[in-house]
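User: I've been going back and forth on whether these two constructs are worth ordering. Before I decide, could you fold them both?

Assistant: Sure. I'll take them in the order you sent them. The first construct and its structure tokens:
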Amino acid sequence: MKKKGTAKRVALLLLGLTLLGVLVWRAGPKEVLAHAMSVGWGFLWLILIALGWRTMAATGMWLLFDPAHRMKWLTVFLIRVGGESVNTLTPFFNMGGEPVKALMLKKHVGLETGSSIVLLDKTMFFLASLVFMVTGLMLGVFVLSDHPAALATAGTLLAMWVVGFAFLIRQQARGRLVSTLTHWLALVRVRIRPETRERLDRVDQTLSTLWTKRQGRLWLSFIAHMAGRLLRSVDVYVAVLLLGMTVDFSTAYFIGAVGVLVNTAFAFIPGALGAFEGGHGYVFELLGMSAAAGVSVGLIRRLRTWAFAAMSYPIVVLYPTEAVGTSSRGAEARSAEP
């Protein structure tokens, strides 16, 4: 089963690489290369912007911890950035870094609480992404008023994700998310040991407590994540400027939202490889700019993401995971106190 799953991920990765190759060929390799080379040292500005939104994302995660036992912000930043580097550099459908984050948090708050925080942080991240996509498509009504079919397609994709996400939040608030997932696993004959099931039930309880009794922290976390999503618009705006073109901020916001939507819709391809660049090319063409410029912007943004992830990955390798000073069970009990 494990070999079959690995083969599937590799096949999807190859599919993404093929799609990317076709896009670059159709857009014109020379033109795409010329656009990429024109960025020069401006690439560092994109690195700084990426640092900015990861800083806000780490703040969103940090705010979820109980104030009485809140971790140092820098520690949370290192853990989140390290986990996201795994998401970027490994073909695990953008989820491979979440267990890594939980294991890194185990030393500080225990595995159960760490897993709850990671799940809730991912939820806040996705919620901010949904709001970003919805508001971006609302701007699209004005930016792409001559292309209602494209907007309708994007709106349909987004509506499907909104429904699924609403179900996810409802199950978390009811304390039934993990139990529902384990029930689905049982249907495909994946057995879970009783002691593991007990841990998962405690994760559900922690999630429900946070949703029903700690809503202020959830709102603050959402605001921090939303600020990070807004920096995606700045990212697009600067990337376009580096290519020698200009767009207004509302258009950059729309393009950034479409990029997030494409990443979400094509999550089954590792990193939405090819689809992300193709989405940029398609939108740029609809906006009256060249598809080559759009593919180039998508490529530049991806290369920046890979570069940042490569710089962050040593955090995962070097981070100590052994319990220090106190047992993880004791730390977990304290962090879970109301």
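The second construct, handled the same way:
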Amino acid sequence: MDEREMMTYGKGNVFAYRTFMEPVVASRQIPESSFKERDNTVFGIDVTVEVGGKEFLSSFTEGDNSKVVATDSMKNFIQRHLATFSGTTAEQFVYYVAHAFLEHYAHIETVKMTADLLPFEATVTTENDEPKISDLVYKKSRNEKLKASIHMERREGAIAIVQQVSELTDLQLIKVKDNSFVGFIRDEYTTLPEDGNRPLFIYLNIGWTYELGEEEVDSLLTSK
């Protein structure tokens, strides 16, 4: 597809929430991870969608909006599809909705969608004067969050995955000792002392793609 002949537009910050979804359960234990299960009592997402196609060009060149899907309609489409979503992960959700966009609107040729999974944690309450994890009240966490992105397009009448990426974003980590910062340039502008043992604070985003073939990815994203 020649992207020079195609117009794209979209909408960001589409917030959608569902409660009491099935939890995410690890199918196998990864040696480097302690993850076993994630509670989906509150499933919140912040979605950005971008759609593209040759049919949208006339809206920008001739003022003809007959093929334009209003961004408010995009918002409603995403939110309503969360209500019918049967999966458990953000990766499955962006696949589900992006695929649905291409199925529902025949003139849309490509969809790029990203969802930030908004983390919620159970609060602590008391029962018989003892602390207890609440199963009723949750709070939004400001810790790291998962981001899932997908790019899908039509290819010879079929819907294909172009790219699928996952990220863990906004990690903030501090190592409290054994961090050396010495041997740097010292000149008339330098006031910072050398330090062989200081705290180290970092911001970190981790992203990855999958080495599976398209059929395997499709099977993974459509299964529970």
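Notes on the second construct follow. The chain has one domain: 3-170+207-222. Residues 90-104 form the longest helix (15 residues).
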